[in-house]
Amino acid sequence: MKATVWRPLLALLLILGLAACSEPKPELPVNTRLGGDFVLLDQNGQTFEARDLHGKLSLMFFGFTHCPDICPATLARTVGAWKELSDAEREQVNLVFVTFDPVRDTPEHLKEYLNFFDPSVIGLTGSADDIAAMARRYGVVYLQEAAETGAEQEYMFSHSDFVYLLDQQGRVRKLFKSDFNTEELIADVRSLL
Amino acid sequence: MFAACFNSPAGAVRKSAGAVRKSVGAVRKSAGAVRKSVGAVDRRRKAFAADQPLLQLPLLQLPLLQLPFLKSFIICCVVVAASVSHAELVIEDAWVRAVPPNSRTTAAYFTVRNSGDKEQIIVRASASVAGAAEIHGWIETEGRKKMVRQHQVPVPAGAQVVLQTGGLHMMLFRLDPVPAAGELARLCVGVAGQPDVCADAIVKMP
Q1: How far is the C-alpha of B146 from the C-alpha of B148, rounded, in Å?
Q2: Which pLDDT band, with edges at 50, 70 and 90, does B63 fall under?
Q3: Going by C-beta distance under 8 Å and a sequence separation of 6 or more, which residues neighbour residue A145?
Q4: Nearest Cβ partner of A141 from B104, B144, B205?
Q5: Distance from A8 to chain B by nearest Cα, in Å?
Q6: Nearest to residue A145, comparing CAs of A58, A57, A46, A64?
Q7: d(Cα B23, Cα A109) in Å, to the nearest integer?
Q8: How far is CA A163 from CA A121, A138, B54, B105, in A?
Q9: Which of A129, A134, B91, B153 could form a disulfide with B199 if both were Cys (CB 3.0 to 4.6 A apart)?
Q10: Residues of A with CB below 8 A from B162's CB?
Q11: CB burial of residue B92 (10 Å; 0-12, 13-18, 19+)
Q12: What is the band of A45 on the pLDDT scale with cuts at 50, 70, 90?
């Protein structure tokens, strides 16, 4: 008698539970205010355009190589998250580092610097104007700051520190703070693959 | 404590055995105080281990030095020496971020603990792998993060200051050569009028 009552109820709960589990996660919205075309130079000195990223997802970060703390930390975290993907998944995700310090970050310098993190990281530099134009499109804010007298570096940059997730069409889908949660980033990347 | 440890026992040894016994009594009292002190600074001494290899030597295991007086004397001297040479600050959990070979800068991170009863203000920093070192912090303004040099870093009495990514950190300039992951770097901070406090830091990719 009891079994007659409980079995259908358990079955119903199971069905409801499975339905809840299989409910698709809301798709990441397209950010229509940020992103767009750009033309820069990659670490091999070749022209690199926004469309060269199309067909794959991209994890993009803006910084400069003389930055001792947040930039290398964020690069290392982003590359670390990317390495947690499967081989097949990694094939579908670009890693991009854009410098806003073209004077010191030449293509050659970028190449050696980024090889340390992973040779597959795409490094982008260019003229100060071209970088500034791209930064404006992506909502990146940075400002060259004169160092105080006697300081070790002539200048530094204050800057925003977001990691951008772009989809296969180069559209901005999500921004992550530099201290992002790795699992969240990986889940969002996988949701777009 | 310094005088009690060095003058009384040392003088007593040169005198008669009776005087030594008195001195032993005094030193035992002193040793009791020292042991309390040792308890209080036990964690600090552990942290000093890397800096104070003498603490790790089997010296105290020698049969002769098992005598209570001599053992107390040596413990007392070591504790006092450690206190004198390192003030009240201890560097713990130190590491240096491994960076590309063409990088001129990196950052070091650690915890500075003040086990004393007075605030200590760090006014200088140095590192064995860098031409210069400075402590910097971050401020966020108008959507930008900006590094600001900290000329003074107060460490309140009985408290600690943590240097970590995105917060206070020690900037290392003019790396030459750039230390590779797995190597050790010597990091030091200093308070005005006192010797530097140093620790070995492992270079690593976090």
Answers
A1: 6
A2: low
A3: A155, A156, A157, A158, B146
A4: B144
A5: 52
A6: A64
A7: 68
A8: 14, 11, 48, 22
A9: B91
A10: none
A11: middle
A12: very high
Phi-psi region of A85 (alpha: psi -120 to 50; beta: other; left: phi over 0): beta
Q: Which two tokens stand for residue B11?
A: 């003088």
Query: A39 with A134: CB under 8 angstroms?
Result: no
- Closest C-alpha among B179, B201, B9 to residue B101: B179
Please answer whether residues A62 and A98 qualify as being in contact, where contact means their C-beta atoms are separated by less than 8 angstroms: yes
Q: What is the mean pLDDT of residues A6-24?
A: 61
Q: How far is CA A186 from the centre of its chain?
A: 11
Q: ipTM of the assembly?
A: 0.78
Q: What is the pTM of this model?
A: 0.70
Interface size A-B, in CB pairs within 8 Å, comes to 84
- List CB contacts of A186: < 8 A, sequence separation 6 or more: A81, A84, A85
Chain A residues whose CB is inside 8 A of the B97 CB are 68-69, 72-73
Nearest CA in chain A to B109: A69
Cβ–Cβ below 8 Å for A69 and B206: no
Ramachandran angles phi, psi of B154, nearest 5°: -75, 140
Q: Which residues of A touch B100 (CB under 8 A)?
A: 65, 112-117
The pair phi, psi for residue A92, each rounded to 5°, is: -100, 10
Residues of B in contact with A156 (CB under 8 A): 146-147
pLDDT for residue B166: 85
Q: Please give the sequence-ordered ranges of beta strands (E in DSSP) within chain A, or none if there are none.
A: 39-42, 47-49, 57-63, 93-99, 122-125, 142-146, 155-159, 163-166, 172-176
